[in-house]
Amino acid sequence: MRFWLAWLRVATILLIAFGLFLVVAHGLTLKGFSLLVYSSSGRISEFGDEAADYIALAHAVLGAVMVGWGTALLLVLRGPMKRNVREGALIFAISLTCWFIPDTIFSVASGFWQNALLNAGFAVLFAIPLVALVRRE
User: Fold this and answer.
1) pLDDT value of residue 42
2) Under 8 Å between Cβ of 22 and 66
3) Tens of pLDDT along 15-24?
C-alpha cells in the first residue's frame, strides 16, 4: 500500500510541477504545445503577438488551476486517504473523471486529439495506483 500511495504522491507532485511550468515557462510552453498540436514549435507564434500572448495567458491560467487542483489532491493524500483509502481513492477518481471526460471530449471534437493523448497519459498515471489501492482494500 505504501508503494501505491507514494506513486500517487509523485504523480500529484508531477501534476503540480507541470502546472507551475505552464505558469512560468511561457516560451517553452508555447513551443511545446505548438509542437504537440501542429508538429512545428513555431506555429503558434505565427498567429501574431496578440494571439500568442493570449494563448500564453490561457496556458498560465490552466497551469495555476492545475497547481491548485494538485495541492488539493495532496491534501486528500494526507487526510482522507490516510483515514480511509477507499474514500480518498473515490475523491481522486471523481476529480480526475470530472477533468478527463469534458477535456478529452472537447479536445477530440475540436480536432486537437493530441491533447486527448496527453490527457490519457495523465489519467493512466493516476489510474494505476488508484485501482491497485482499491483492489487491496
Assistant:
1) 95
2) yes
3) 999 999 999 9
Whether 23 and 67 have beta carbons less than 8 Å apart is answered as: yes
Residue type, 92: F
64 CB-side CA count, 13 A: 7
Q: Please, which residues have CB within 8 angstroms of residue 1's CB and are 6 or more apart in sequence? A: 85, 133, 136
Neighbours of 78 (CB within 10 A): 11
Q: Write out pLDDT tens, residues 103-120.
A: 999 999 999 999 999 999
Q: Do the Cβ atoms of 18 and 63 come closer than 8 Å? A: yes
- Name the residue type at position 40: S
How many CA atoms within 13 Å lie on the side-chain side of 35? 7
C-alpha of 87 from chain center? 21
pTM exceeding the 0.85 threshold for the entire prediction: yes
